[in-house]
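Input for the complex:
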Amino acid sequence: MSSSVSSPDKPRTVTGKVFALSDRAIAWLFISPTILLLLAINIFPLVWTIYLSFTNYRANQPGRAIRWVGTRNYERLLGNEDIWGYLQATAHFVLWTMLLQVVIGFGLALLINRNFKGASFWTTVILIPMMLSPAVVGVFWTYIYQPQTGIFSYIVNFFADVGPLDMIGSVDLAPWSIIIVDTWMWTPYIMLLCLAGLRSIPDYLYEAAEIDRANAWQKFFYITLPRVMPFLMLAVLFRGIENFKMFDMVVELTSGGPGSTTEVASINLKREAFEKWRTGYSSAFAIILFVTVFGLSNIYVKALNKVKQ
Amino acid sequence: MTAAPDKAFSVGTVSARSKLIAAILVTAYALVAVIPLVWILATGFKSPPDSISYPPKVLFQPTLEGYVNLFTSRTRQTPEYIKSLGPPKTWYDELARKRNMVISGPSRFKDRYLNSVIIGFGSTFLAVFLGTLAAYGFSRFKVPLKDDLLFFILSTRMMPPIAVAIPIFLMYREIGLSDTALGMILLYTAVNVSLSVWLLKGFVDEIPKEYEEAALVDGYSRLQAFVKTVLPQMRSGIAATSIFCLIFAWNEYAFALLLTSGQAQTAPPFIPTIIGEGGLDWPAVGAGTTLFLLPIVIFTVLLRNQLLRGITFGAVRK
Amino acid sequence: MRNWKAWVAGAIMSVGLSTSVQAADKEITLCWAAWDPANALAELSKDFTAQSGIKMKFEFVPWTNFADRFLNELNSKGKLCDLLIGDSQWIGGGATYGHYVKLNDFFDKEGISMDDFAPATVNAYSTWPKGTPNYYALPAMGDALGWVYRKDWFARPEIRAEFKKKYGRELGAPQTWTELKEVAQFFQGREIDGKKVYGAAIYTERGSEGITMGVTSALYAWGFKYENTPGKYDMEGAVNSPEAVEALEFYKSLYDCCTPPGHSDAYMVANLDAYKSGQVAMQMNWFAFFPGIAKDEAVGGDKSGFFVNPKQKVAASTLGGQGISVVSYSDKKDLALQYIKWFANPKVQAKWWSLGGYSCHNAVLGAPDFPKSTPFAADFLKAMAGVKDFWQEPIYAELLQSMQKRIHNYVVAGKGTAKEALDKIIKDWTESFQDDGKL
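Predicted:
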């Protein structure tokens, strides 16, 4: 491929010379800007963060000498019981949103795949929430959740007389308030991937199963599920990473409250880094989060590859 | 994952009854899911008292007050003072005066929206431009450590945005890019370029190499062959990629919150602050939200067939 | 190909240019919070522009984002603000980290004397270290936390009669927190004009400083102190004194018994809204809002009464308010200083008060007709005589964050006890002061 024919008799203008670059030169010319940009805005900052995480630096105290503190930031973080609370809140959020979205999303995909009349219209309608800005949506849901004037409590009370629902102010309900919004926004995503999986299953498999007199459940467990599984797991991987990093929707909806009930890791990181300005300490927290996401998703991808085979 | 024909509706024959059940259930879900969207739209046309009435009002007298409040800043004045001003000059003056308010000037919403447009489109253009080149490079040439580089590009999306913002904040402060559109464009480009490379590489991979080879035989140089044969065929891929980059840049909140202020702030961190000015003005928030979400809703409808590829980094081919 | 590159270059340049091109030379930007007094200041500043030819631009940010936005702006050495009306707690950081220009020489040169301003405001808004004659701001807006009540409801005979029967005294503006809670309980759930109403709207906001400002107005009334000996940072026994525990428990009981549903994340605007829409009988809020309430279409005029923060063990109020500072990163410090000189003029200060700002100038506050000028002016003087502020340390934001979290956790989320919350605050604060080298 790379040793293809060099261009012969072409007019030798300046343009011609530029256009006559060797493959190797073109490859580098094409790839290097992207790599340079990523080095400047992703890798260099990452390395810098790693360095800062071993110092006592505070970005709001210009005169203060930067002192190397070894692993003290990490020790403090891992010994801080509050940190475990934030990680628990995050895990609760990630696990429940994934569970709900997989169940509802897969279910919807199965239904839509029956290809009834109007399926494509309703699919498009269902997709809209996931394209919206989570922060803006988060703000608006505070209004929807308002116990008296909000429509959420009103609708719930229409079906079950439970009185005004204080979704954001109550310790028991607040974690669910963010799960509901996330599920509303992102179930379509899981649905879309499951649908792609379902449509990749060739018809002859089902035809063959019918000849073998397999019942609906058998068809589901032996054909549908294994074929959709890789798609589903991929969807969970992408959404899982996003929800682990979740900041915008939650901060606008509950700002981590009541108390620290919904203070997911990113919200606490923001408070440490940009309100308390403990730059070194928060850099260490950032690294821990990054390593966690990276490690978990690597394990997950290994599992995914097994399922694929 | 192999490509499958679009029409492989695979459960074989579906009975009319099960179709009906599916139709009912899916429609019911869609109707529930659409309530918040309708509520946003409706709230934008409510009057402030209607917006906080109990129980919530489904039927109401529509008014443009929310939109007027969104685009203006107002001060409350005594009726005597308002009378001294003479009759209102415009319909929106009149609306404001009904609530003892005088419009004192335009609000910042227009500027913030414009920033969203500049930063959104600027970064999208750059990300797609760089992505097109890199995708072609990765797809067609032997690049040392290719797989590592591709994974490295992807891994940059695993950092929580707040974690990235810490060093970027320090860096931009040193080089004077804080609160500039240029700084935000570069940052969003860097975030988007990973998506752009992965998506576009998928498209380039599908273009047969024979086209370029024929062009090379015809005496074109490699670069000419790229411009004349590959680029035109990437058109739909570039369009789809652009939309996804734009959606990210359009909706992004964390970076904008932390790295911009009076000059380059975009709409997402601004819209929540509408609530803080002059009371819990939900109609204005509804109006702002509607205007902000509208372009994306239109894109979703137009692009529904390309969606899958875009939101999965091209990992799933449709 | 080349066209593409040209486009990119063009796009980058045009974007770069559009952000770097500044408006006309003689223009300065003043940054403050977005609220009624800021609009009044914009109105007042028209005189300055007419006099000096310097145009004024304003950047007003809502309170919940105010500290976040502008502290971030200062820390990124931004040039957005030439003048900043920063919160009282920022003065330590502003002085220590070099965000604010020191104004002593300027005051001397222009003959501006700090003795012309109320001592409490000079101490709170201008000096760092506290109480020394090192000035980093001119007192701009005096403020304290006060209360508003529905005078029209309180005046209804049937309500008064019922209240008297129940509590054995006349219904009126409460003098103590105990009375305040009784009144709130009395109104909670009552039907007035066919609408269910609630007792009181108090601060419970989590994200910025809301619940701390609310809780401290109870704590101060119980005689709360941050340190046993001022300047020693010895907080054990002061911050978690039995009185402090009692005050905190009281605030929680008030939240539990007498606030409207869903009032779990409320600051100034939410309280205003609850009050103006006729949901509550009383609200706590900054004096800054009182002029607006007095002329409100729904609750203005005779419908609203005002009272100073009730006492319990002592009379004290939570301090609000701000001084105006020149930002040291500004390119137009001379123009900004001109504005301060103009603003310090007693005549301008008098107009400032008449437009709805709270002047701190003795010529205004000391005028014989001042207490009668508005329904809340006398209360304002009373409040300012006994104000207490949160820490003004350079690391105040860090101290505030832990207080927000611990208090919200106890009051709203109902986790742990008041003593535990205060103990944890001491632990957090001790750690912060150790990090800062003060302990």
